[in-house]
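For the sake of transparency, this paper describes our internal protein records without simplification. An entry from our holdings is shown next, in its original layout:
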Amino acid sequence: MSRSSHFVTDVKSSSLIHSRENKITETIAAIATPHGVGGISIVRISGPAALSIAGKMTHAHTLNPRKATLKTLYDDNDHPLDEAIVIYFKAPFSFTGEDIVEFQCHGGTIVASMVLERIIELGARLAEPGEFTKRALLNGKMDMTKAEAIASLINAKSEDAAKLLSRQLKGALHDYVESIRTKLVEILAYIEVTIDYAEEDLPGDLYEQITQKLESIKEELEKTVEASRSREGLIEGFQIAIVGKPNVGKSSLLNALLHYNRAITSDIAGTTRDTIEESLKIGTHLVRIIDTAGIRESGETIEKIGIERAIASAESADVVIALFDQSAPIDKDDFRIIDLLQKQKGQKRIIVLLNKKDLPPKFDLKQLSDFDPIPISVKEDTSVLIEKLRDYLDLQSRSHDMILINKRQIHQVSKAAEAISRAQSVLAEGEFELFAYELNDAIEAMAAITTPFEREEILDQMFGSFCLGK
């Protein structure tokens, strides 16, 4: 058997978590619905004792799988706790691959908490954040791409993000990774033939075929990384920073967009000393909008900290809205803002607004010729700005490229592309053994996207961002 075949076998046998023996023996429970007043609360149990616990709580001798049954739930003194819909999912035909019982009890925090406490009294323990999904992963019910898509879908910030993540739940990223991995294994097999049968007559264009295939794969990976980085805001939520010198109307603009007076406004320069962040719905997108301190030369310690944070917000934002007062002559503080915009140009969307359009113009518009400034009166009408923002955000969503949904996935694809670059270099020098080594690195990097790490503490960290009951 060639080294490539050994490698493929090793990846399948030792890396895929669901092939190992399941050592999970504890039964876990959690409230799966948000805390607060509502029509229904769902309490979920998963594990070997789930059915037994449900039987003790309902006084039922049997529960038919996948059949909703109205049952009374009892406490340890056989007093009724609630009347609930009980559904039993028999292993392995459940979300976690284990026995699961769900109690759909009346909403509110008290009833659900009482039901959960009784479940724990009967031998279950409180689930850790994301532990239900973690068990589904370990039991082979899903791979890491689906698990991460579930976590991101719960926190989706736009309809387009939800649609993209739903495609990943259906296996779009899994199929993409497997396609790339298969191509790399095929190339590795070619090179193994060259190593093992160096004295035989091989196709004269074999080297050329390998080179072309490698270049095509690398370009595809780099395109995926670039598209994913440019659209991180689609998954994580776009950030919009409002910048400008003091008293140009930044806080007034924030208040106008939010339709209430969130920020204090006054004619006193430096009123806003720190960043103010709020969520705002623009079209189908939930964005984070940040009002910043006025940027100017200042010797006051607190104000200087606010200015530093304003600049940092502009540098990290997906969109920068820069406000200038068109009724005042340009000054050194305006030039400082323009210099900041020039440094960010080409890296993100920049929208320049000339506020106070109802007053006689005095601003030198030539200094803003690179940014196509928009006249506006933020206290009267912001519709033109909202339209610009909505068009940009919608444009970021219109992509048929494969999108990686978090930094871990981006890192792994970047790592694979770098390994391919190194493989190309050593192949050009005829170092076939080193070439095989680098290609193995690329294959491992891609495999890690769908296959979780073996180390338990890393899995705990990854699933710790999930909510309880998921």
Observations:
- Confidence is low (pLDDT under 50) at residues 1-23.
- The domain at 235-397 is CATH 3.40.50.300 (Rossmann fold).
